[in-house]
Fold:
Amino acid sequence: MAGTQNNAAAAAKSTQQGFVYLPLIAGWLVPGAGHFLVRKWGRGALLGLSILSMFILGIAMQGKVYAHAGDILDMLGLAGDLGNGLLYIVGRALGLGADSVQVTTADYGTRFIVVAGLLNVIAAVDAHNLRTGRKPS
Amino acid sequence: MFSPSHFTAVVLFALFASVVFGITMRETPARMVRYGAYCFVLFVGSAIVLSWAMYFIAR
Structure:
């Protein structure tokens, strides 16, 4: 009984060692990287593939990449886009996406890009929870 | 430029969102797959139901 408690305490302590926010930050910057850091290779690959695919499809549909927050909707869109981390920065640097929505598919594309960012934030928080031990496995 | 139909866009959206939901919201692989499939069916199913509802409302 005491041995089991010691093992559990040791496991809990080992999950707290080091910089516990690293998977969160890495996961935000590069989709799936947070899970790779906690050695969840399959999950990281699936998350990265899904989020990257959504972002690329959004760009391919000529979705709008929010650059500034003029009104409340732009502000929400920008917050969602920022969740893409480096993808957003690279997208802005390369001038990807459209400046304004002109066709129906571009409207879908805009949503794809925003939702990719929001899903990336969820994935990064999940990696952080795995790292801290809040999520067991 | 990629121009999917409405339904293709819904299916793609549902697929990617369901994968992320399944992995992040459940703990074991079997439960992840089940929850991901559940989310996918709900996404696509609700889109179909709402589409038919709007079709009849518009008539």
Notes: Helices of chain A lie at 2-16, 22-29, 33-37, 41-60, 72-82, 86-94, 104-132. The radius of gyration of chain A is 18 Å. The interface with chain B takes residues 43, 46-47, 50-51, 53-54, 57, 60-62, 103, 105, 108, 111-112, 115-116, 119, 122-123, 125-126, 135-137 of chain A (CB under 8 Å).
